[in-house]
Amino acid sequence: MATIFKPDCMADRSVFLAGATSGINLGIAERFAEEGARVFVISRDAEKVARTVDTLKASGGQAAGTACDVRDYDAVDAAVKDAADQFGPLDFVLAGAAGNFPAAAIDMSANGFRTVVDIDLMGTYNVFRASHPHLRKPGASLVAITAPQAERPYVMQSHVCAAKAGVNMLVKCLALEWGPEGVRVNAISPGPIEGTEGMKRLAPTPEAEAAVKANVALRALGAPRDIADGCLYLAGDEARYVTGTILYIDGGVVLGNGRF
Ligand code: HXC
Ligand code: NAP
Question: DSSP letters of 194-206?
């Protein structure tokens, strides 16, 4: 496939990826490893972390990781330090961990709502806050993975909509606070991505998937690589003047279906 990215465009870059042991974020880890980065991954499940590290190494990449829950600030702090000790100052940080289940607000316990806010919003804050002392300054690029739920209300998604809306605003605030140090902070908002846990949970049948597609301007699902290429762009020097933005890689789903 033709690509605008030069081979090994991430060589000598040190990257820390939270929630990168499956789905979209695993695709991001594979893409950065393919382009020569030193990749450190975290997620809760030690087996998934080990499998991911093995896969990245088997394809020729430099990789390490540790099991860590993004809700646990001290654990995130230790993991980021471990990454920087092994791989050097962090050039790129991804806050991609998320939790989602469809539930009406009235059918959720306070703990159900809090769990998603803790993983998505607090987790993003924890990863970015803990990484700050270890960032390459100037030059580091931070990316949060948000969702269309941040800007469009959906039924059965009040917890996710509230959490992801918070992620979008957090990114913009950190872009202002850390811009003077030469640290860029952005978010990517994926649309529905084929074969992912998110799609399995929100559109578990072929009929539900068809209904999702009908609300996408391009009438198609995306692939993890679409999001990974957006991360490469935001990590690269080409994006050196880009901060505080939400990059929509979503087939136009955030536009809605445009019908009265
Ligand atoms: C109502 C639910 C529920 C459900 C869990 N809870 N599932 N409430 N309906 N279907 C409640 C539980 O009862 C509990 O409250 C609280 O949530 C915490 O549940 P735990 O199972 O103890 O939480 P935990 O083990 O921390 O797991 C977190 C999780 C889980 C979010 C609940 O689903 C998870 O690990 N998800 C990670 C993977 C994932 O979700 N990937 C999809 C990301 S896609 P009580 O009161 O009983 O204690 C995405 C956007 C997709 O984010 C966009 C697509 C277009
Ligand atoms: P996924 O496969 O479930 O990926 C979630 C990742 O986060 C996994 O590696 C998971 O590993 C990790 N994780 C979950 N909770 C964690 C925690 N508390 N601490 C640390 N790691 C944790 O989901 P996905 O569908 O690819 O979604 C990935 C991202 O894209 C999410 O931010 C999601 O909101 C966003 N998104 C997805 C879609 C879509 O179509 N799928 C659309 C828009 C936005 P462990 O289980 O080992 O912890």
Answer: TT-HHHHHH--SH
